[in-house]
Amino acid sequence: MASSSSSPIKVGFVGLSATGWAATVSGPALLQPSLRDSYDLVAVSTSSEASAKASAEKYGKDVGHPVKAYYGSTSKIASDPDIDLVAISVKAMYHREAALPVLEAGKNLFLEWPAGACLEDTKTLAAAARRKGVKTVIGLQGRQIRTIAKVKELLASGVIGTIRSSNVILNTGRDFPAWTPLVIENNRYTHTKKNGAALLDIPMGHFLDLFTYTLGDFVNVSATHANVYTEAGILGDDGKPTGEIIKSDIPDHFSVAGFLKSGALVNIFWRAGYKSGEGTGRQQFVWEIDGEEGTIRMESDDLMGWFPSGCEPDLFLNGKKVEVDTLKNLVEILASGWRAFAKRETTYATIEDAVKIRTLLQAIDESATEGHKVDVVYD
After folding, report:
1. Judging by beta carbons within 10 Å of its beta carbon (0-12, 13-18, 19+), is residue 218 exposed, middle or buried?
2. Does the predicted TM-score (pTM) go above 0.85?
3. Residue 327: CB partners within 8 Å, gap ≥ 6?
4. How high is the pLDDT of residue 169?
5. What is the pLDDT of residues 110-161, one digit of tens each?
6. In this protein, which residues make up the domain named Gal80p-like C-terminal (predicted)?
7. Mean pLDDT in the chain?
8. CATH number of 145-327+349-375, picked from 3.30.360.10, 3.30.1220.10, 3.40.50.2300, 3.20.20.70
9. Domain 9-141 belongs to what topology?
């Protein structure tokens, strides 16, 4: 495996086209000037020949050399002997199909969260990775934010004493039209549970990885959920309503309580769909960690504050603000994850971490659906 101290890691990127998450976030993060010595984009793969050629031409100009163009099955890019690592950024329901050929080819893998449409998908990918002995990186980039690094430092110092409880409140406002009650056309798939891209899957999965990375694993959960917004209005690419309304049976409110392995009691309330921004007075994110000797609090009223994996919150220790040299945006945060992998650090998430979070999400869903406490059993 190449590293930043030798030749650059040669990357083939699946899903890196003209638009979408890969084009606006994960691709630009990889292509940061500070990572040029660590990574080299050598190939792209998209769904069609035309888009693959267009993408290869565009990114070839960015990296300063020709980029190979593949399309269709990922087995093509996975079999390229010039590639060390394949990065995959496609919709969740295609993760398993796209990632398995890469793992079977023995290539290292970067895969966006949620690493499959369900726990079974994620476990299948993890088993393949173990069998082939490859390295994996999952796009749970929240582990990279500097606020969390500081929180872990404070906790390790013992400044707030033994942790007794933690309380979290989050709001995914309608200003971010990925879920109800307003949804852009390209995100209508998030309202079909089997696609694995609902609120519970993506944003809650991101946060719960950040939470457990900081405070440790759950041993049990008691959850309830509600489907407050039973319909969603579809928005066009211009952000204006198209007039189409779709039904939504995906829960948009969650209340999760449980105990951590440390014995701390946790309460998380997540709601979605409310109006946010100026004039509402509504904070998007509050996370309190209470110890015997004090309290750590993180909070944000930014419209993306509910997504600390991409928008660093303010930090307070015993009511006093702690200054942190935060990463400025989501691209910088993702770039930090790429850097950690190249340097062989241990701060990035792997497919095994993804299995743990998927296991927790399934337990939450089971508890909320069946109305009883569920023990979280990690394989």
Report:
1. buried
2. yes
3. 144, 145, 146, 312, 333, 336
4. 97
5. 999 999 999 999 999 999 999 999 999 999 999 999 999 999 999 999 999 9
6. 148-300
7. 95
8. 3.30.360.10
9. Rossmann fold (3.40.50)
